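Here is the promised in-class demo. Please do not try to memorize the tokens; focus on the logic of going from shape to residues.
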């Protein structure tokens, strides 16, 4: 009976890990070159499609009133804080991958096709941006 109780407790403890295998949540991005924390991005699910907004800028010396001056769509001139940088992306059948979305780099205004893959039990998120045959992957850290 003790073994069954231990198994149940173990399964219950593991349940939050399984529940986190989604890009939905709060994530911290880092600069590719320096490793310095750049921003916190909150990703939500809107009717099966992802949406991600910059919740907080963490870069040293960042202007809190900065806007997306390089954006060329409806985000042009919008404040960086609160800027929707992820649009779309739906879960692939039988995979822990959300693809078909877009992500914008507010520093240069470029928009990329994107996929989002939770890794390490959902503690990290591989964010891959594509521009034609070229791609770049960042790994974001979940913020608890």
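The designed amino acids, position by position:
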């Amino acid at each position: 009976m003790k073994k069954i109780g231990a198994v149940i407790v173990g399964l219950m403890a593991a349940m939050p890990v399984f529940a986190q295998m989604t890009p939905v949540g709060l994530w911290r991005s880092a600069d590719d070159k320096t490793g310095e924390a750049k921003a916190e991005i909150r990703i939500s699910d809107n009717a099966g499609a992802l949406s991600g907004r910059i919740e907080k800028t963490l870069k040293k010396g960042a202007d809190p009133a900065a806007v997306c001056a390089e954006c060329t769509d409806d985000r042009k001139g919008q404040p960086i804080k609160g800027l929707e940088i992820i649009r779309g992306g739906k879960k692939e059948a039988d995979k822990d991958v959300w693809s078909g979305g877009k992500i914008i780099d507010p520093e240069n205004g470029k928009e990329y096709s994107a996929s989002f893959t939770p890794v390490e039990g959902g503690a990290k998120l591989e964010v891959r941006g594509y521009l034609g045959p070229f791609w770049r992957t960042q790994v974001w850290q979940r913020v608890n």
